[in-house]
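Service request form, structural biology core

Requester: graduate student, group of Dr. S.
Request type: structure prediction, single chain
Budget code: on file
Notes: please return the result as structure tokens.

Sequence provided:
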Amino acid sequence: MTTEGTAVTRRDAASAPDADDSEFEFGGEPAPLARFAGPRAETPTTLALFSDPHVATEEEGTWKAYHRTEARLRAAVADANERDVDGVVVAGDLTKDGHPAEFDAAADALADLDAPAVAVPGNHDVPKAFDDHDTPSVAAFADRFAPDEFPFRARLGGVDVLGLNSASAPDGALDATHDGAVSEDQLAWLEATLPETDAALVASHHNLPGLDAAVGPDGHAPHPPVGDAPALVEALSGHDALHVSGHVHLPAAITGDVRGLVCPALSSFPQAYVLAEIGPEGTTLRLVPIADDEGLAEAYDLAQTHSDRSASICDVVERQLAELPLADER
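Core staff response, request fulfilled:
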């Protein structure tokens, strides 16, 4: 199979994690990722949190297993329907690179959801100067996948979902989006809106600080936190809120001044989403696998052989899965 980047052989698929070797069982009951004292909702609410499906319509291979992406998103949708969730939040990177056909495929899959869904854009979803195709604008993304322009507030069950667009440079340009930023006007809106909420889930594609423990033994680190992260942390501090992001392609729980969840990717190992159970006593987050053993082994092998970076992230994911729950306040 041809893959992008430098191929580095780390392990083969035969050594992929086996369900019997971990409490995290693919195909079993979702394992607790974290238990937080908040947010707390008077009305018990269950949300499915998806991230990084990277839906591709023509590409194959790479550690994101592009040839499986549409099937993985459809599997997550089917599983969320079976669990009768109250809503779905997608934390960005719906597409491989923002091609209109990729958006069409992602929208078609999400249309099968029984519950309402909202999404925020990732760096792969917005126009960039080097695109060789016409990527829809952020406004067009909002029209299709959000209840309003960004930032937005949507009520799902007993939870307020506050959606931010972090896939822009501070000056609003769309040609440098990988590190991301939350604009000053969005931060001001967040500071004004959070006091009006009882239980809030704040979604942006780019992550908060607090991933130091996810640095691999070879020194490869996850993406840095979103630009001007201290201002976002300050806006979130002191509120009954949970920040939800993706981008990093590994599951993580962030504690301290604010609570944060980094969602795993639907596209790459471990090909899972997060089930958020939010009630009067707090929030429980559970990992839900959406690939069978064969698919898991393929994703593991692709990550281990694609590049040093993908192999390092895969190693961190293995360690995270062995340490569940990653946070427990209850």
